[in-house]
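Ticket 4471: requesting a sanity check on a complex prediction with adenosine-5'-diphosphate. Repro inputs:
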Amino acid sequence: QVKSISVTDYGTNNMIGVLLVIHDVTKIKALENMRSEFVANVSHELKTPLTSIKGFAETLKYVEDKQTRDKFLDIIYVESERLSRLINDILTLSELENKDYSINFQKVCLNECLTEVYYIMHRIAQEKNISLELKNFEEDLYIYGDRDKFKQMIINLVDNAIKYTPQGGNVFIKLEKEDMKAKIEVKDTGIGIPNQHLPRLFERFYRVDKARSRSMGGTGLGLAIVKHIVMIFNGTIDVQSEVNVGTTFTIHLPIYKH
Ligand code: ADP
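Returned structure tokens:
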């Protein structure tokens, strides 16, 4: 954006120059675009389950057969659940992006947190006949961070690993120490991710297979939330994957020594 202002010498009333004011609005414009794209995406994502709920609720009045009514009611329930997960994830992500969260930084024992996550996710894995294993590091490792956010990050990764691994598969969580960093691996023997999708995986609402994600109850925001939490902890996250072999997410976090 360029603005020009002429400069006049009021003694002689002659124009003695022109002042050019240049505003670089590229960044502001890019931010604005990102924001409106996000709003468009969110609206679209919210509309899908809503349309379905509305449609089935309307039709329900005219259905007399009990079996069909029950089926419709099931769909309405599942879609409402999805809607509420979506709203929760949107709120979490927007809190993280706007740095709106209350920071509760403290010394956090990773071994303890991973054990808690293991017990939460073990039941879900069992329901799908997937074996979940945790290999903790022999000595306790600590980070300086927020305990709940750390757990949420690992739960999101393990939840995905279970979601995208067929029955009878395996999911491993492993904690190690590497170059004075805590290294946490979440590995599965699932469907894998084709290489070309890996660079965009952490974008909001990016899914490799939209239909599959939807049928698994996914919101498309899990990994965007993970990425933000990793950033808050000054860590890094990498993903390696092979189609039909499995996927490994690796997080490195600075160790807290005191
Ligand atoms: P979703 O709610 O769709 O699972 P995420 O942000 O958690 O959204 O993940 C984005 C996409 O990355 C998923 O839709 C899926 O295609 C892919 N993905 C994530 N984790 C895995 C995994 N462990 N194995 C295979 N694909 C995965």
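Notes from triage: Helices lie at 26-60, 66-97, 110-127, 147-163, 210-215, 222-232. Leaving this open until the requester confirms.
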